[in-house]
Amino acid sequence: MRIWLVNHYAVPPRYYPLARQANFAKNLMKMGHEVRIFAASTVHNSDENLLSKGEDYKEIIDDGIQYTLIRCRDYQGNGLSRVYNMCEFAIKLPKICKKYPKPDAIVSTSVPPTSCAVGIRLANKYKCIGVAEIADLWPETLVAYGMVGVKNPITLMLRKLEKWIYKHADRIVFFEDGDYEYIKEQGWERDIPRDKVFCISNGVNLEDFNHNKTHFTVDDEDLHDTSIFKVVYTGSIRKVNNLGLLLDTAKKIRNPKILFLIWGNGDELDSLRERVEKENIRNVRFKGVVEKKYVPYITSHADMNIVHNSPMDLFRFGISFNKIFDYMAAGKPIICDFNCPFNPVIMSQAGIDVASTDPEVIAKAIEQFAQIDQMEYKKYCENAEKAAHEYDFTNLTEKLLKVIEGSATPIGISEEKV
Asked: 230 and 148, same structural domain?
């Protein structure tokens, strides 16, 4: 099959660490399929543009994958320049696609919904399979973060576009197991039946993870101290991540053998470091930022990895954070300090969650877990490793191919019932 992956942000992972489409492409190519990724030339969260102003588009091959990069205007932040960038890619995409032989399937990703909609429209035009891959529920996510109101004209417009995408796609791929509940909340079941909706979560490239774990080591005294119980956090340190709650939790820990090790960077790092010093929080160590290739070694040497976030109404449909699957690959237990009904950590019995924002409650859960017997601890480790294989991109790509071919199991229906 000739398969196009349309994703606004899917530049080669060495520029921006969004490797989902690259992993799909590699595995589909191994299966004998012809794959091309269409992406904007701008690198998200940077000022880098991979094309010069005189170029409309450019074909490149990176790590064996064929990309077509479409020149789009630079942008910073989430203002009008980003909106223009999104619209520009969607407008230019059909003209560029005319230069290529017709595909057998188009997998088109939202966000943004603009390019996803154009991808589905192209699939309808070419009379090929059109798969809408929904990485983020827009506008629901924007509403949840307080960026727009429920009745804001932007919300209403995006909701209308969203329904159009779902209705006109041959198949829909969500990232969370509970996302069909969102369809039901909107009252769209008649137009968007469950049998065209599937779930393929984020995942992990186990081959790369294990290679990096072996080849990119970190010389850290605390990480190698076997006398302490190490709770590791890796990721952004911004207000939205609410790491202040993690410091509050650390202050409630009474067991002197428990130590929080935090790797990452963000605009709250300096203020949190000041808190640690001012409040004399001795069981928290900020380790700074490291390249992603070092994360496998770090998380594999933890005693527990923590998925930390503020509770959000959006989580009622589930979560699919990339770090969850990296933590699973580390083969160590995971704690989520928020409640979520469709949590892959809990569904795979790879860890525990805490349905409270009270630091005392979270601290107690960590202290109790640090005292469990070795047999029980080992079982959590084994479950994490088993889940990592389930969420390896080799398996996720097979799921995607089944979705394209029409033989996949719809969301919310167990394999046994099919």
From this structure: no
Residue 261 sits in the same domain as residue 280:
yes
Q: State the DSSP code for 43.
A: P
Q: What is the pLDDT at residue 414?
A: 53
Is the Cβ–Cβ distance between 281 and 253 less than 8 Å? Answer: no
CA distance from start to end of the chain: 26
Residue 91 is classified by DSSP as: H
- Residue with structure tokens 């952004």? 236
Kindly report the average pLDDT of the chain as a whole number.
Answer: 94
Is residue 337 very low, low, confident or very high in pLDDT (cuts 50, 70, 90)?
confident
Sign of the Cα torsion 142, 243, 258, 227 reads positive
pTM: 0.92
Higher pLDDT, 147 or 380: 380
223-226 LR contacts (CB < 8 Å, sep 24+): 223/261, 223/298, 223/301, 223/302, 224/301, 225/259
* DSSP conformation class of 49: B
Distance, in Å, from the CA atom of 94 to the CA atom of 5, rounded to the nearest integer, reads: 14
Q: Which residue has the tokens 């010093």?
A: 277
Q: If we measure between CA atoms, which residue out of 418, 7, 413, 410 comes closest to residue 173?
A: 410
Q: Residue range 108-120: average pLDDT?
A: 96
**What is the residue-wise DSSP string for 376-401?**
HHHHHHHHHHHHHHHTBHHHHHHHHH
Helix axes 113-126, 153-168, angle to 10 degrees: 30
Beta strands in 240-341 (DSSP E): 258-263, 284-288, 304-307, 334-336
**183 in the same domain as 41:** yes
Determine, yes or no, domain membership for 266.
yes
